[in-house]
Specification:
The protein is of the alpha/beta class. It folds into 2 domains: 115 residues, Rossmann fold, CATH 3.40.50; 184 residues, NAD(P)-binding Rossmann-like Domain (Rossmann fold, 3-Layer(aba) Sandwich). It has 12 helices and 12 strands. The two termini are 27 Å apart. Bound molecules: (2R)-2,3-dihydroxypropanoic acid.
């Protein structure tokens, strides 16, 4: 039997690529060049499986019935870049890589929270520019994080990892908003309280941290109206997906002093970051680093391949999402 033909769209960790080479007729991408939509369309006709990442848009124009493609094993937990309905209609199975990146993503959310609250990016820029003339009582005064109130939107694995850090690391009061009710014992583990709606949560928090999925359902969940419900001394942290926040409305709120600051790891049109945000001292901006540790990237790659192996062995992929 010929080995399944697999396309890996980006350069992956060495050990994961070695595992793929041993078991599949695999095409790797050592130059790490982003595939165009037409490359991906052609690949759907030529490969049994594609292992994409967030940088590959697999829309209905790419995923079409009648091609050779049978499996999409996304390397990443978020999969709003894949048209799952089109995949289902074409009989293509889709999987993702949950769990393994929860800790590191929550670490980056907490990094951003601390950066904006304590003005760490600003302070570093100030020092490197040679402007520091020594300690003074009024210099770069930020906000105290310990004991403050955090609102967590989306209480899945990453939201809970953030709650653990906030509660047990910083003694924060944790409020949660989630589509479905969270079990009392889960909330109790973080001393958390679930509020009925996002609108109810917003005026209550010093920090709002987003951990919900992206995609059409949550596009601009945080828009101008909701930003106006937040306190002017509050901060917004987004490590979920760029589309969850109306970036233009956010920049306006920051510029007008209607929000104290924002920490962003994701953007509406990655890798484009708007000039308005770029120019803002009270925005901490990272280049989508949530899962970017050696340990987590290895684990994500292996988890994607576990799903691929299961699929071609005729088993149910453990992280099947469609
Ligand atoms: C994820 O896993 O969703 C990361 O954002 C990378 O795609």
């Amino acid at each position: 039997m010929p080995k399944p033909k697999v396309l890996v769209t980006r350069a992956w960790p060495e050990a994961v690529e070695a595992r793929l080479k041993a078991n599949y007729d695999v095409t790797l991408n050592p130059e790490d060049v982003i595939h165009s939509a037409s490359d991906l369309r052609a690949a759907a006709g030529e490969y049994d499986a594609i292992l994409p990442t967030v940088t590959d848009r697999l829309g209905a124009d790419v995923i079409q019935p009648g091609g050779r493609l049978r499996f999409i094993g996304n390397c990443g937990v978020g999969y709003s870049h894949i048209d799952v309905a089109a995949a289902k209609a074409a009989g293509i199975v889709v999987s993702n890589t949950p769990d393994v990146l929860s800790d590191c993503t929550a670490d980056i959310a907490m990094t951003l929270l601390l950066m904006v609250a304590r003005r760490a990016g600003e302070g570093e820029r100030f020092l490197r520019a040679g402007l520091w003339e020594g300690w003074r009582p009024g210099q770069l005064i930020g906000r105290k994080v310990s004991g403050a109130t955090i609102g967590i939107v989306g209480f899945g694995r990453i939201g809970q990892a953030m709650a653990a850090r906030a509660r047990h690391g910083f003694g924060m009061k944790v409020l949660v908003q989630n589509r479905s009710p969270i079990a009392p014992e889960v909330l109790a583990a973080y001393g958390a309280r679930q509020v009925a709606s996002l609108d109810e949560l917003l005026p209550e928090v010093d920090f709002l941290s987003l951990h919900c999925p992206g995609g059409a359902a949550n596009r601009h969940l945080i828009d101008a109206r909701r930003l106006a419900l937040m306190r002017p001394d509050a901060f917004l942290i987004n490590t979920a997906r760029g589309e969850v926040v109306d970036e233009a409305a956010l920049a306006e709120a920051l510029a007008a002093g209607r929000l104290a600051g924002a920490g962003l790891d994701v953007y509406e049109e990655e890798p484009k970051v708007t000039a308005a945000l770029m120019g803002m001292e009270n925005a901490a901006l990272l280049p989508h680093l949530g899962s970017a540790t050696r340990e987590t990237r290895d684990a994500m790659g292996h988890r994607a391949v576990d799903n691929l192996d299961a699929f071609f062995a005729g088993r149910e992929p453990p992280d099947r999402v469609a």
